[in-house]
Write a structure and sequence with these properties.
four-stranded antiparallel beta sheet; single chain; alpha+beta; eight-stranded antiparallel beta sheet; elongated; 1 helix; about 15% helix
Length: about 200
């Protein structure tokens, strides 16, 4: 193009893409860092604080029902040991990735025996109201069971339909098997609430 006898060149320069590339790279790195932090926090919460679990079966009726969704908390037992009547989740020793949920009845060092439908701790009848119905079969607990210093005696609240410490396949539960305490029911919606252990 000629203007006043002077040729002017109007050529569009190619867009300089380097800043855009750097910006995109920073966005990707930021996203990856964010995702890693979220994943790490979730992992730490699941391992050390709380996790969701589902009740399968009827062994804890009427307190818990088949299909109930619970939040299991893991912090309490980092500060003190399980207490009588706590509802705990523990690893089943004879199968990988199988967990049971039961109520703590006998504590370390105690002697537990079931006579008729009554539970005795160190020879004294235990006052409790968690059983769905009176116990019909004492099984192993027909004879006195003395718990070790790291052992707990657990029962399902549905005493006549529960594999628990009366059963040789479960027997006494060691402290290292217990992973946490049932804390909050989140499903079904009409039963949402904290789980009473007393």
């Amino acid at each position: 193009m000629m203007e006043n006898g002077v040729e002017q060149i109007t050529e569009e320069l190619p867009e300089f893409d380097e800043p855009k590339k750097r910006g995109r790279l920073q966005e990707i790195i930021s996203f990856l860092v964010y995702a890693a932090v979220i994943f790490g926090c979730t992992f730490l919460i699941i391992v050390f604080v709380a996790q969701r679990t589902s009740v399968s079966g009827t062994s804890m009726n009427d307190t818990l029902q088949d299909g109930d969704q619970l939040i299991l908390e893991k912090v309490t037992y980092r500060f003190h040991e399980p207490e009588r009547f706590d509802i705990v989740v523990f690893r089943y020793t004879h199968a990988k990735n199988v967990f049971y949920i039961k109520r703590v009845i006998g504590l370390p060092g105690e002697t537990v025996q079931i006579i008729g439908s009554d539970i005795y701790i160190d020879g004294e009848r235990l006052e409790e109201n968690y059983g769905l119905e009176p116990i019909r079969d004492a099984k192993l607990a027909a004879d006195p069971i003395t718990l070790g210093e790291d052992e707990y005696f657990v029962l399902g609240d549905n005493r006549n339909d529960s594999s628990d410490s009366r059963d040789p396949s479960v027997a006494n539960v060691k402290r290292e098997q217990i992973i946490g305490r049932a804390w909050l029911r989140i499903w079904p919606l009409n039963k949402i609430g904290f789980i009473s252990h007393r």
